[in-house]
Every structure is written in C-alpha cells, then in structure tokens.
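Open question from group meeting: does this chain pack into something compact, or does most of it stay loose? Before anyone orders reagents, we agreed to write out a predicted structure and look at it together. Recording both the input and the output here so the notebook holds the full record.
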Amino acid sequence: MRKRFIFDLDGTLVPTQLVYSQAIGEFQLVMLHALGRYAPHIKDIGNQFDAIDAAMVKMENPRTGQPYGFSVDRFSDAMVRCYEKLCTAQDRTSDPAVIAEVQRIAHRVIEPSAYQEVGLVSGATRVLDTLQNRGADLVLLTKHEDATFQQEKIEALGLTRWFPEPRIVSEKTVRTFAELAGPKDAWLNWSIGDSIPSDIEPALQAGLNAIFIPSPDRWTFERQRESELLQQWGQDRLVCIRDIRELLQQKECCRP
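Structure tokens returned:
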C-alpha cells in the first residue's frame, strides 16, 4: 500500500527563522550605526524589538483594519517602532532615511531570493529523494497569507522537483487534512511539521498519523502539548524526532 507524506514548508523543509534572524541582526547593526554612542547594548535592542513585535501580533494593522497577525507588515512596523522608541528614549528625532533602510531590511523576508540563499534544511534533499524513490506520494501543504509569494519561494527553492502541485492555504484545518487523505486508509498518511496547532493536531484529528520536528526555540506550551498528545494518541500515531534526517530511521512510517 502506497504511503503519503504531507510536508510543511516553513521551519520544516526551509529554515525560515534563519532568514528572519538575519534581518533582525542587520537591523541591530543599523541601530548601532544610526544611534552611535546613544545606542543601547545590541542585546537590549534585540529584546526591545522582540517585545514590540510580539505585542503587535494582535494589534490592528492600519492598512487593512485587521490584526497584524504574522504578516510582513507587522515585522516591518515593529522595526520602525523599535527605532522610534530608541530615539525617543534618547530625546532624538528619527531619521526618514534610517526608517527607509529599516523597511528595506524587513521586506527582505518576503524576497524569494533570501530563501534561495539559505536553501533547504540539512538532509531534506536526501529524505525527499529517498521517499520519492520508494514510490511514496509526496505532498507539500503550506499556509501563508500571500499565496503568490509562497509559490515563488517554493519555486526558488527548487521544491517543484518533488511537489509539482503544492497546496497553499490560509489555515490548516481538520478538513484540509481529511481532504488530502481521502475517504479510505487515512492511517497511511503522515503529516510532517514543526507546528503542533497547524501540522500535528488537525492531522491527528483527521485520522492521519504525524511526525513532529520541533524547533529548538519552540514555546514552552508546545513542549507541554507534545507530552499531552503523546499520551492521548500514542507513539504509533505520533512520532517525535529532533531532525528531519532522523525521519528515514522511523520504522513506523518510513522504512521500506
């Protein structure tokens, strides 16, 4: 019987956080240069940005009238607000040229070339090639507010080699996974990802199995939820690994 593997994209096949981290690092350096001797310690700049960025997730985006969520507008506006806050703390006036540079840095995270430069996570190519050669069905299921950008990123990464028809959705739901699995043999389907609420829970609830590859800097609640899910579903339905390279070693799903 043919198995199907439904892969997440960001954080699972591509180190998306690295692209964001590079942007934040560049932002910190620009702040040091722009504020000169008035600049706080680089770690303090990072901490202030993180606090502002997190607080803005539920704030209203003036461009859309909707919450910022995890949009690039939030990322860009958070950097600008952080710069303005740092200026205010030193009784200085913000510089429009610096704001423009900050916005350029922030928008780097929505340039497909940035992801092409970092490439896939280590071991992903071998895993995908091996599963494909074994005759498995490979599906890419990714969520993003901007489907055009996500498609361009997929193509820049060369992923159409394994996923000629990627699925881009605004949310991953139980219904999404049920439709991908089909009416029969849902247990032959495996959802693979780094997000419990997006990749793991809805897949399990739809009757699929799941492989969780947690991010090293995941939230505490995800650590707690992982333990709860293992108790609820058992290790036959939910497999937890540290690295995508371990996937081929899992006899429950991936060994021929």
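Observations to bring back to the group:
Residues 17-115 form one domain.
The chain has ten helices and six strands.
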